[in-house]
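Regression check, GLP case 251:
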Amino acid sequence: MNLRVFRTEEDAAHAAAAAVAAQLLRKPASILGLPTGRTSLAIYDELARLHELGGADFSETHTFNLDEFVGLPSNDARSYCAFMQTHLFSRINLPGDHIHFLNGGARDHAAECERFERDIAALGGLDLLLLGIGANAHIGFNEPARTLRARSHKTRLAIATRRANASLFGGRLDRVPREALTMGVGTMLDARAIVLIATGREKARAVGSMFGGRITTERPASVLQLHSNVEVILDLSAAEKLPQSGFDAQP
Ligand code: GLP
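Current build output:
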């Protein structure tokens, strides 16, 4: 694991955006895996800015988002699909038919997950997977559990995860769906490169589970230690529980 620690959340987000922009320069027709969530906002702001400056061309790129709430069709304002439209897709030149999502409104969830997997495979697999991490070390919506699933599937959300997402539902926990569709950890590990970003003290314990050599389904992000090309980008607060604490932060 390649670890980079930055002084501020903003610097960390800029580094993650720069990693995506560099990938697009190397391979304009890259297949990207993308997260949602608070942490991604500053990354998407920076990507939109880079795009405006001519530094990030998405015209040949395809994107696959990690997850979606069950019961929310893509046109629902509370869906992750709507989140992505607002915060990234409406601000860049990504063609509409290059946007790939698990459809939370699908009737047959298993068939929808299989279609999603087929679409990733048909485009040659993910070149770069950008990941956030939950405070309980979930990745996508792969929650801590006795077992993890390799491929995309329907999952039950942890109460902590539903709480963390309540702001999308007017702060009402009872309105947050109990289930979601998510990319599986095997599909994530098939990506040619992974960049994970975590900022803030509340992520520090989860970040610790990616280091130290112990892999457990109770800390899903720990499986990333099996991948040979992972970059972890942190701010100082998210890094505070790492044994290396005290290292110099990058400017
Ligand atoms: C969310 C999403 C993840 C995201 C993570 C962190 O629930 N399902 O894809 O990476 O949890 O979110 P945040 O950045 O808001 O802390």
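Comparison notes: The two ends are 20 Å apart (CA to CA). The chain has a mean pLDDT of 96. No diff flagged against the previous build.
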